[in-house]
Amino acid sequence: MMKGYVHNNLPDKAIDLFNKIENPNDVNIILLFNSCAQLKTKEALDLVKKISKQIPKSFYSNSHLLTSLLDALMKCGDVAHAESLFYSSKEKVLPMYGAMMKGYVHNNLPDKAIDLFNKIENHDDVNIILLFNSCAQLKTKETLDLVKKISKQIPKSFYSNPHLLTSLLDALMKCGDVAHAESLFYSSKEKVLPMYGAMMKGINRLNIYDNVELILSQLFISF
User: Fold this and answer.
1) CB 96 within 8 A of CB 120
2) What CA–CA distance (Å, rounded) separates 97 from 123?
3) CA 111 to CA 2: how far, in whole Å?
4) Cβ distance 31 to 46 under 8 Å?
5) Which DSSP string corresponds to the chain?
6) Are 171 and 135 in contact (CB under 8 A)?
7) What contacts 33, CB < 8 A, 6 or more positions away?
8) Judging by beta carbons within 10 Å of its beta carbon (0-12, 13-18, 19+), is residue 101 exposed, middle or buried?
9) Per-residue confidence of the chain (223 residues) as pLDDT tens digits?
């Protein structure tokens, strides 16, 4: 039921149900944290802190629980608490890095997201998407150089991920490299709607109206 409430964007109902459980297990607590992450309120943050103090210490060895706790703290705006928990954790898994990077992006702290990315040894596609999102927020020459560098290093298989391609196009456009973005866009065999959106949004921002018409013509041809 709790998972269903979270899935259907009914976090308050999930929290009400959690409060009726006498001895919640780690799955119940993960779903509670997910519910609070959806609400992003002070009350939700207070509940996250309260429950995180009450749960058995053994639960902190559960990487899924830690990731959901970090995500909830970040989305509720308590960056300092999340950082303290993250850096005190001995075994950090990739989803924990992802939760922190996503939280930094959410809280408009892209520099911190990039710094954390640089500490990851083996990046997955989620980490790379979040890096591109961070660079898109900064819109500087330095971040453009970083986007280009990472885009050359990632495995070719990652380019089949439309979410990654969209975030890369968005970063290139927001950092001002229209030519590179267009080259990547037109060379992509399978274009999804968000990719068109990233290109059109970037072109509109730069007032390159002829390019908008070209993108639109490609969109209508593909359908």
Assistant:
1) no
2) 10
3) 35
4) no
5) -HHHHHHTT-HHHHHHHHTT-SS--HHHHHHHHHHHHHH-SHHHHHHHHHHHHHS-GGGGG-HHHHHHHHHHHHHTT-HHHHHHHHHH-SS--HHHHHHHHHHHHHTT-HHHHHHHHTT-SS--HHHHHHHHHHHHHH--HHHHHHHHHHHHHS-GGGGG-HHHHHHHHHHHHHTT-HHHHHHHHHH-SS--HHHHHHHHHHHHHTT-HHHHHHHHHHHHHH-
6) yes
7) 48, 51, 65, 68, 69, 71, 72
8) buried
9) 999 999 999 999 999 999 999 999 999 999 999 999 999 999 999 999 999 999 999 999 999 999 999 999 999 999 999 999 999 999 999 999 999 999 999 999 999 999 999 999 999 999 999 999 999 999 999 999 999 999 999 999 999 999 999 999 999 999 999 999 999 999 998 899 999 999 988 887 766 555 555 555 555 445 4
Which two structure tokens, joined as six digits, stand for 68? 């959901």
The residues, ordered by sequence, that sit 6+ positions from 220 with a Cβ below 8 Å of its Cβ are none
